[in-house]
Every structure is written in structure tokens, then in C-alpha cells.
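quick one
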Amino acid sequence: MSISNNTPLHDLGVAELGQGLRDKRFSSVELTQHLLQRVQSSDSQLGAFLHVDAEHALARARAADSRLAAGEGAQAGGALIGVPLAHKDIFVTADMPTTAGSKILAGYRSPFDATVVARLNAAGTVSLGKLNCDEFAMGSANENSAYQPVANPWDASRVPGGSSGGSAAAVAARLLPASTGTDTGGSIRQPASFTGITGIKPTYGICSRYGMIAFASSLDQAGPMARSAEDCALLLSAMSGFDERDATSVQQAPQDFHAQMLSAREGATAAQPLKGLRIGLPREFFPAALSADVNSAVRAGLAELEKLGATLVDVSLPRTELAIPVYYIIAPAEASSNLSRFDGVKFGHRAAQYDDLLDMYKKTRAEGFGAEVKRRIMIGSYVLSHGYYDAYYLQAQKLRRMIADDFQQAFKQCDLIAGPVAPTVAWKHGEGKDDPVKAYLADIFTLPGSLAGLPGMSVPVGLGEGGMPVGLQLLGNYFKEGQLLHTAHALQQATDWHRAAPAGI
Ligand code: GLN
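structure w/ glutamine:
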């Protein structure tokens, strides 16, 4: 999009806003005020924010304007100075409350910032507040938030996806150019797909988990959500990198994902920037039960990638279906352990009346946790208990390794893997709420990559049933974020799907 003087500020993405700020076409204070006004006028219907802090945001915007006035915007690392965003409420923040979408953390304030937040603050971004999510990131529809559901900006009667539903809806509704999300089993990719935005879950270990409230520690990974691959690349460069406070953080030098996104492939031509790229289509990702609308949008996206020079090859990920039971054993097992820290002693809510310590724990947790969280704690405790550990947890761990090995087999025949993000477009509010297993089954295409720890993206490729967005999932091998972003960027340079906005926005 060329920045014309009459493009409204909320229609501009991160890269364009950064440019406009550096060119002094508008200030960060003006931009922040504009977006705060939009949040005030439309978020009561959307429900994307759990907390908005105008005063803080404007103070940070003023600080960013001073940095820009001093010429810092043109220096390395200056691309995000003054750019507004907001964080999923699962990242702890010192200057705002953090709830993880749970009543048990109502009123909780962290004494420190999550590393991802601290890094984006240092890069000069201006946080408007905290974004709604499923309780402890458990869910696929944002209906497990203890506070409020989130409407899909494309159709308020539908869910925005989850668990990063607030992060997705706010970006799709043009309340924010970008946001942070987390993905344990698909929570960046699936809401991005349901709301027509772009999101990337990097390789496990690329972004620090320090200060990201733990759901399933071996799977949880932070990532950016924005309207283009380019914007995601800018954010990912700032939020990633080694952190000694996270033992699973990857020890590598800071990466410039934007430069990686731009770097031309060997043998590429102007008309065929993806020449030589082999994209594998796992046959298990295109089952007969896949909705026809999702299938045709995904095929349209793949056809564009072919026009850009990529070749499509058939591959197999034979254990795709097993990813569901494997994930829904491992993730609850880790959750049951991680959530034991919420006991009424150290954080947030404590029952008002109780007889003794044990009674205090029980009442606090019974009152503080919602139904889905309790369900997962029970499943997790069960599969870890004596006598069942070998039958469930250990088996699941073995299968997890085999699922990861299947990807390595597939990557012998291709550079990237592509398929749908989800079997359908966003469903109606209420559907799936009474049947958790139905929601679990819809995670089938995102879970395998999560279990393997691979990087994955959702890129908009058109509209399906009810005019709802469809995302193309791209999965790369470990540390191939640059290749994913390059591919998605090439697609977005050639097509307009990522520019489509919900009606009336
Ligand atoms: N839908 C999946 C779940 O409910 C994934 C959630 C996530 O990635 N945080 O666990």
C-alpha cells in the first residue's frame, strides 16, 4: 500500500507507520490517540481488550516522539519506535495488570515485565493495554476467557479463534497494527486464520518464555500477529533472541528477520521470486472431510505460490491424526503441573472463607479456575499418576518424537510444508462450547507442527463460507523463519488477500 495522505492511520501497517513516524508525517502521540479513540468507540462490542491504559500509552508515545526527534528512528533497531500495539494478557507486565484470562489472577500485578514485553518496550513500541484470551491459553474460540467472549470483526456472531482471540480481533478490526500472541497448539495461527490476519509462531526457543504465564512449557511459544508478513518480521526481530532467564531459549545471535525476508533466493527472478522452492502438501492435511470452501481458498493460495515459481510436491505426515491425543495428553500433563502454583498463597485470588490450609487451596482453586482449566488439570493429573504414566504420558512422549521424525522425512522432499490452518472457517459463538472434544479435533492441522517445535505461519488466502477468512498454513524446518516470511511476503507482494478488511471497518 502506498502511503497517501488520506489513508487513515488505522489502515497502515507496522512498516508504513514506522516510515510515517520517521518522516514526521504524524507523531506517535497523534497515532496513539487515534487508536485509543477507536478502542474506546468499538471495543465494547468486540471485547478484545481486558485492560486499556490511555495515560501510560500516551506517556510512552511522548517518549517515543522524543526518540524520533533525536533521529533514533533512522538508526538500526529504530523501525518500531512509536508504533502502537498491545500484548496478550498472558505476558506479565509491571505497569498493567495481568490475568491470563482467569479469575484466579484478578487484580494480579507482576513486579516485572516478560522478556518479550521488555524487548518490545525497549524497541520503542507503545502498548495500549492487555488483550483478551482463553483462560491460561486453553481454547480455540476465546470463549474460555473468564471475562468476556471476543467477537470476530468479520461477523460478530462468530468466534475469533483462540486462544489469542483478542490479539487477532484487535488487529483485524484495525484497532491496532499488531499484537503479541502465544501458540501452544495453534493459538497464533488459528485465530490469525479466522480473522484474516498474518501470524507467525517461530521455532520453539526463539522467543523467551520468561514472564509468559506457562500453560505447557515444552510447547508454549510467543510470536507476532499483524496484517502482513513484513510487519511480523519487524516485530519478531525485536521480540526474539537469547535470554539467559529461559533455560530453553536458543543460544544464537540476534536475528534480522526483515533482512532474511527480503533476501532473494538463489536462482530467483523478478517474476519468479520463489523459483526452485519445493512446497510439500501432506496428503493427511487434505482429507475428504476438509470443508470445500477452505480447500478451495488454500488451493488458490497454492496456485499463486506456483505462479511465483514454487513447485508443489506430495508428502506424507502419517501420524497427523495421532497429534490430537498426543497433544491432549502432554499439554494437560504440563498444565496440571504448571498451574499448581495458583494456590491462593502467592498470586491473585484467595477464597474469603476456609477452615484450614488444604480447604483454602481447594476453595481458591474451585472458585478461581474455569471449567476448561479444571478439565485439563484433571486429565493432566490422571495421565501423570502412578499406573497411568506409562500407558498415557510415556506413550505420548514416544509418539511426539515419531511425529517430529515424520516431518524430517517430509523435509527431505520439500523446503516448506503447506496446508490449511483449520478444517473450517470460524464457527458461530456457542458451537463447540458444550463439546470440548469437537474443538480439540479442529486443532488437527496445527498440533503436529507444535509437537515438533517447528515454525509455522498463517497467511490469508481469501474468503470461505459466510464471507469468513481462510488462512494458508506454512510450516518450515527448524530456524527457517526467514524462509517462511520470505515466501509469505512474496505471496503478499503479488496478491491482495491480506489487505481485505471486515465490512464497516
Ligand atoms: N486449541 C489448543 C488448546 O486448546 C491450542 C491452544 C494454544 O495454542 N494455546 O490447547
